[in-house]
Each structure stands twice: as C-alpha cells, then as structure tokens.
Write a structure and sequence with these properties.
Layout: H1 5-27, E1 34-38, H2 44-52, E2 57-62, H3 65-74, E3 80-84, E4 97-103, H4 112-121, E5 123-139, H5 140-152, H6 169-177, E6 180-193, H7 196-200, H8 208-214, H9 219-233, E7 242-254
Parallel strand pairs: 1-2, 1-4, 2-3, 4-5
Antiparallel strand pairs: 5-7, 6-7
C-alpha cells in the first residue's frame, strides 16, 4: 500500500506539506545541526527543513525505494540526502545527529518502541527527538472513511489503525524510551478539496490503508462506499469545493 510515490503525494503529500512547518517549529530544530528524518516518505519534511534552515544538513531514510527516488528528484538542495533503510535498525553511529524527527510514520511501524529507541540512540545528548501522528478521532479524511466503511462492512473496522493515535500515547512512548522533558501538543490544519472526486481519486489508486481497502472491494460495494461518503460531505458543498480538518499529536523530548 506504499509503493506508488505519485499516488501517495496525491493522497497524503498535500497534508504532509501543510503539517511540516508546524511540526518543525514544535520540534525546535536549531539551524546548523544534523537532522535525521525517519520515515521521510516523499520528502515533505525534508523540503520544509531545507527551506527553514540555512546551514543544517538533513538525512532522510525510508524503507520504500520509490519514495526515496521521488524525494531525491524533488528535494535537490545539496544539504539533503536520502537513503533506503529501516527505522528499527538505523544504520548510523550513536549520537550522530542533533535532531531525530519522525512525521506521520510511527503508527505504521509495528515495533514503534524499537524505532523510538533507535531515534534516541542516534541523537546526541541534549539533542531533540520528536514525532507526530494523526489523532484517530480528529482526522476527518480517514475517520469519515472508516466510519462509513464499517457501517457498510463491519469487518472494515479492524483495518483502522489504533496505534499511537490517541492523546498521551506518544508521550508515554517517549517516557518509556527514556527521553527527558517530554512535551506533547496538538497541531491543527485543514485541507481544501476541489470536489468530491478530488477526495475519492487517491484511494482508488490503492495507496495507504484507505486505498488498500478500496481496491479489495467489488464494484458494487465500492460504489456503495463512494455514495455514502459523498452524502457525508454534501452538506459542505460536495460535489463542489469543501474542506476537511485534521489534528496531529506531536511529542518532543531531549536525548
């Protein structure tokens, strides 16, 4: 469900680009240091870091090779580099970064405790380790989708992500990891859609949990879900423009 970089950009890249500036400000990334972008995806966070610093170097790592290729093509500043790798086994020496950030990825990693420990390991003493995930109840794009999918197909509810998407869960993970001065906050954004089709097009391409579910549906069930979602958004002007809101849960701590 994470192999098509262009489809991912269409679904989530636009959200990531809007969230990244808020997240980097919360993470208090100081200019001039080495920053590790764990689960860098297609490069939205790295692009923001390049734009908001003058001397920092950014290293992005992600297990999906097409995402890394896309990031290399679209973030061309020489201060940024990207490589394929595993968040639970980071290929870097201890204390080799000033900041380690993970945006919208920890909830997809089954061994999130290991990933957090690895982020701490590669961050120098006094450096910052920060992450954010979507609030499961406050991300309208996905919550509305799964609410309607589960109403039509009760088995769909099991496909929702329930990891690290409730207030306090990231902070608890950071405390368990041994990070200091842990703070958690909420970051709120919204996204405009030109039409209902602008919302519905990305899931049909099979990207992410939403898309992975949609492509398993028979045509009549897919159309039923599409109609149900369009009815949910119609009060906001669908099939014309409408907006969806989202809240991300962000945490930071000192290594």
């Amino acid at each position: 469900m994470f192999s098509d970089a262009l489809a991912y950009e269409d679904l989530m890249g636009r959200w990531s680009a809007r969230l990244a500036p808020l997240f980097t400000r919360f993470a208090k990334v100081a200019d001039g240091g080495r920053v590790l972008d764990v689960g860098c995806g297609t490069g939205s966070l790295a692009k923001t870091l390049v734009a908001t610093t003058r001397q920092s170097t950014i290293v992005g790592i992600d297990p999906v090779a097409p995402f890394i290729e896309y990031a290399r093509d679209h973030v061309t500043d020489p201060r940024a580099s990207f490589e394929v790798g595993d968040a639970t086994a980071l290929p870097y020496p201890p204390a080799s970064f000033d900041h380690a950030l993970a945006m919208l990825v920890l909830h997809f990693i089954p061994r999130s405790e290991t990933a957090a420990a690895e982020m701490r390991r590669v961050t120098r003493s006094g450096g910052t380790v920060a992450a954010c995930t979507w609030d499961g109840e406050e991300m309208e794009l996905s919550k509305t989708f799964w609410d309607e999918a589960a109403r039509l197909d009760p088995s769909a509810d099991a496909k929702r992500h329930h990891q690290l998407n409730r207030p306090g869960q990231l902070a608890a993970l950071w405390h368990t990891t041994g990070l200091q001065d842990v703070e958690e906050t909420a970051l709120e954004i919204s996204m405009d859609f030109a039409s209902f089709e602008d919302y519905w097009r990305p899931p049909q391409r099979g990207v992410g949990p939403l898309g992975a579910y949609v492509v398993t549906l028979k045509p009549e069930r897919r159309e039923a879900l599409r109609s149900a979602l369009e009815r949910r958004f119609r009060p906001r002007g669908a099939p014309g423009p409408f907006s969806l809101r989202a809240k991300a849960l962000a945490v930071r701590g000192g290594a």
